[in-house]
From TrEMBL:
CDD domains: HTH_XRE. Residues 42-96 form the HTH cro/C1-type domain. The keyword DNA-binding applies. The keyword Calcium does not apply. Keywords: DNA-binding. SUPFAM superfamilies: lambda repressor-like DNA-binding domains. This is Helix-turn-helix protein. PANTHER family: HTH-TYPE TRANSCRIPTIONAL REGULATOR, METHYLPHOSPHONATE SYNTHASE. Pfam families: HTH_3. It comes from the Bacteria.
Amino acid sequence: MTEHPSMDDLRRERMTGPDYDAREYQAGRAEAILAIQLAESIRERRLELGLTQTQLAERAGLRQPEVSRLESGGGTPTIGMLERLAHALEVRFVARFEKVDAA
């Protein structure tokens, strides 16, 4: 039986290959972290309100699979979708740019 490389080995190989771009990797990682944070905040607020995904979807004019996808960190919601979700979750959606502290 052939032994498969570990995830660490694959990551190391990818990060040292000729196509590796550290800035692109960091940007993708930052985007993934934001998606997870958004997913967690949607799910936590939904649960605080005692809503099912279906109930939240109905309140926000969405379909349950869309709510499920957002709560799992998938997809890229539009500003309009975020506004509808905020209204359905009885919160205010705030988007802003913040200065980065100089290190």
